[in-house]
Design brief:
Blueprint lengths: L1 H16 L16 H13 L5 H17 L2 H18 L5 H17 L8 H10 L6 H17 L2 H14 L2 H15 L4 H19 L4 H18 L12 H26 L1
Helix pairs in contact: 2-3, 2-4, 3-5, 4-5, 5-7, 6-7, 6-8, 7-9, 8-9, 8-10, 9-11, 10-11, 11-12
Amino acid sequence: QQQEQQELNESIEEENITTTEIPASASERAELSLDTALAAVVEELADPAAPRHATIASLQYFIQASKENDQTMWSHQFTRVLDMVMDVLDDDDADVRGLSLRVLRELLRNQTSFFGGAFRNVVAKLLERHTETDREVLQSAEETLSVLANVVSSTTCVRILEPIILEDDGAVLLGAIKLLTKVLKKMSAVDLTSVLDNCIPGIIKGYKHPMAEVRKGVVFALVEMYLTVGPPLKERLGELTSSQRKLLDIYIKRAEERIARATNASNA
């Protein structure tokens, strides 16, 4: 239901922002193959002097082409389109940044198999948007990360996040920890155990972070780990102080009680 509402909101947004025509040079696209037409749009977007309306129209065309999902066309054009979309994520115009995130969501849903090794760069780029000043664009970036987490295997996603959590700081670190927590909820004990040793160093470092939000995010991530793998997790947390362990135990107990209440209610 949440995904249906998100898609409905995006449809409404698309109707609201579609105030321009596809650039005049695209008027012949109806007579072109989809592959040729998409290549023409890529060339238009690549022009650094392209006006705002042309950039928006090109991004709208990418959304349409993604939904049509012609596999042959995308096998030829995917890399160039993705590179262009990633570039305009840094545009000065919030509408352009927001629309580029919509394109990226469609690509993630419809052209998943073409991403290959690009997922790492996409995750990093999306996490950079957590420094975003526009609230709607920030929300759109978080929605895009949620879509990505649903199409990439949880193990792959955790491995991508490991170095980011260990090395980054501030809003990017907080965004990475929040995404990690979402992914952990979907992992089996076997899968989580396979990545735990590499994941823990960054988590412990985050628990010592001066930002309270980061420390709180780390606690939530550790709680999810504990709910999946149980007491063996604590054997890997030797660097935590006694006060940090006590705080973690409090949150674990709350989570277990919440789960027990939900289970009892469903069985009543």
